[in-house]
Amino acid sequence: MDDQTPRPPSRRTVLRTTAGVAGAGLGIAAAGGQTARAATGAVPAARPEAAAVPRRRGATMAGVPFEGRSTVRIGLVGLGNRGAAMIGNFLALPWVQVVAVCDPVREKAERAAAAVVAAGRPAPALYTRDGEDYENLCTRTDVDFVYVATPWETHFAIARSAMLGGKHVGVECPVAMELAELWELVDLSEQTRRHCMQMENCCYGRNEMRVLRMAHAGKFGELLHGAGAYNHDLRELLFSPTYYEGPWRRLWHTRLRGDLYPNHGFGPVANYMDVNRGDRALSISSFGTPALGLAEYRAAHVPAGDPSRKETYVGSDRTVSVVRTARGRLIRLEHDVSTPHPYSRINSLGGTRGVFEDYPARIYLEPDHKDDQWGDFSAYAAEFDHWLWKEHANPPGAHGGMDYIMVHRLMQCLRLGLPPDFDVYDAATWTAPVPLSHASIKADGAPQEIPDFTRGEWRRARSGVDSAKPV
Predict the structure, then answer these.
(1) Residue 386: CB partners within 8 Å, gap ≥ 6?
(2) In angstroms, rounded to a whole number, what is the distance separating the alpha carbons of residues 344 and 431?
(3) Is residue 420 reached through a cis peptide bond, with omega within 30 degrees of 0 on the bond before it?
(4) 285 - beta bridge partners?
(5) Phi, psi dihedrals of residue 394, rounded to the nearest 5°
(6) I want to staple 375 with a disulfide (CB 3.0 to 4.6 A). Which of 48, 146, 369, 423 is the partner?
């Protein structure tokens, strides 16, 4: 194994050969109003009505392993609520070294550095000069992986800078906000030979991983439908003067009408159905309610002179989308952060032999259950819990431990030189509903084509989150 970061293609070469990618991506968005014909059963041949896919400028990154190394050296960009909460997950791994931290608010970077030192590790370098100091972090030669937890509108630029600097990169969701940006991240990953991955994807929850293994074992029969969501009442936090660094997240509700946060719901169900690994997402049709919740909450709780009083919200209080796959399956996605609702990611899967539904977890499978009575999902734990959850039965960290499991597994793959469980094609696919749901709602629900970011590689079965335990 080699601790030195291999030299990627030069920045100039990559920039020259990616010219025109944005235009190609926008062209797909413009053509996205076509209805894609879903197939049933066998994987279909290439569809003549499909929008043109930009020419590949590098080799596929599907199944490409990391370079093995004894120590994984990381840089952290963005140290607000999410970024600060994730530091402990990295520091819990003895083979991970936090080399650098970056945030334009120096106090946040200093607190992060103090946490690293308190864990008995060397003090990291600080990058706090301005909002673009991440570019200097990304030029370091002693960083293998950059973790990004910043406002959404900055995700694309930081991920781009990391890959051009020769770093693998993991980005909080959504990975980018525009279709052209998603295509450019795919192309940059292929050209620089650096992985770009969607973090906080909810794929590593205990329930999600158990359902995934059961689906792969055929317990649900032939898969037919699934559903996922981000239904989370964020009204108080969206108007909090201290929780977010400025009103950046709330302002997205003044810009887009569609699903702003599809990844939590889409990722796990896409895994159940082997999307990008034997099936693929073809199209999305979206509908949205009126945007009333934020304005109503503001009227009741925000002082009259607050700057938010000048904002006009257009983001649907609830969006409902239906994604169709090449094998004829349906995935329902929901998003609602503007109205009262107990937290739910829905997380359901149905097939010819039964169904699982979460929140609360319940299951009905033939021949195990009968008389239309839900069964005990915990009864399947011993046989179908993923090896990661058997090794880490009580993991630390937020979201029930799934964040730690995700970080542990990703850092393990980096250290051992394994392919990542999820890659840039998953990041682009899971994020595509952000711009496409907005376009569909504006078009009265007309289907928008989801690009084939894999450029045909989806037809090839390969491993994913349902991974084998490394020897």
Answers:
(1) 206, 209, 210, 212, 213, 466
(2) 19
(3) no
(4) 322
(5) -135, 70
(6) 369
Residue 471's pLDDT is what?
86
Q: What is the pLDDT of residue 206?
A: 97
* Dihedral over Cα of 100, 101, 106, 112: its sign: negative
pLDDT at 53: 87
Nearest to 278 by CA among 460, 451, 463, 421: 460
Give the pTM: 0.90
The contacts of residue 94 (CB under 8 Å, 6+ apart) are none
Name the CA radius of gyration of the chain, rounded.
Answer: 22
Alpha helices by DSSP H, listed for 193-288, are 206-216, 235-238, 248-251, 263-272
Closest CA to 330 of 289, 285, 267: 285
Asked if 403 contacts 147 with a C-beta cutoff of 8 angstroms, the reply is no
Q: Are 201 and 270 in contact (CB under 8 A)?
A: no
Question: What tokens appear for 282 in the block?
Answer: 């073809």
Distance CA 108, CA 40 (A): 52
Interatomic CA distance for residues 449 and 204, integer angstroms: 28
Residues in the chain: 471
Report the C-alpha gap between 357 and 347 in whole angstroms.
Answer: 6
Mean pLDDT of the 295-318 span: 97
Which residues face 125 on adjacent strands? 100
Counts of helices then strands in the chain (DSSP H, E): 17, 14
pLDDT band at residue 399 using 50, 70 and 90 as cut-offs: confident
In the predicted model, what is the mean pLDDT of residues 435-445?
A: 98
Q: How far apart are CA 24 and CA 181, in angstroms?
A: 10
pLDDT of 398: 78
Angle at 80 between CA 76 and CA 81, to 5 degrees: 115
Q: Which residue, 345, 408, 412, 396, is CA-closest to 208?
A: 345
Tell me what percent of the residues of the chain surpass a pLDDT of 90: 85
CA–CA dist 439, 175 (Å, integer): 18
